Predict the structure.
Amino acid sequence: MSTVFESRTLTAEEYLRMPDDGRLTELVRGEIVEMNRPFTSYGYFCVRITFVLCQFVDEHGLGRVVCNDAGVVTQRDPDTVRGPDVAFYSYQRVPRGPLPNGYWPVTPELAIEVRSPDDRWKDVLHKVAEYLDANVLTVAVIDPVPQRVHLFSADRESTVLNADDLLTFPDILPGFEVKVSRLFE
């Protein structure tokens, strides 16, 4: 659940320059939207997927993994800045070397959201659509309570993986695989 906090329309650049007042927010169509504070277990699941993904990406020299709601511009005019829980950028999208300042000029290939118990599926699916419209190739929604992962792509039907299934991203991270249940250990 989220609430609109600011009434004036902001650009992504204005939003980036705002001082951190401790609130969890995103910019949605130019308006600051306050997000609910996640449960502790939510942070644990974010760390699990980040750890597994980072190990693979680092071992294979494929790119960069970001987490902690690092901002991704998904729309311009009016601007929207979303904060995926975890995201992967290949070196093709963000080359090796110094990192760009501010919001990176491209979207990640992979965005991962961990669903909180109070997240409405309607809102989650809206965010998934925004990522896909912004050229994110795959969006994974990790749903801890039933221990499932929902995969979305612009070119394929959505897929639901259960605890005993293997999570893979063959078009983005060839060779990566992890049993879904490992994300919830």
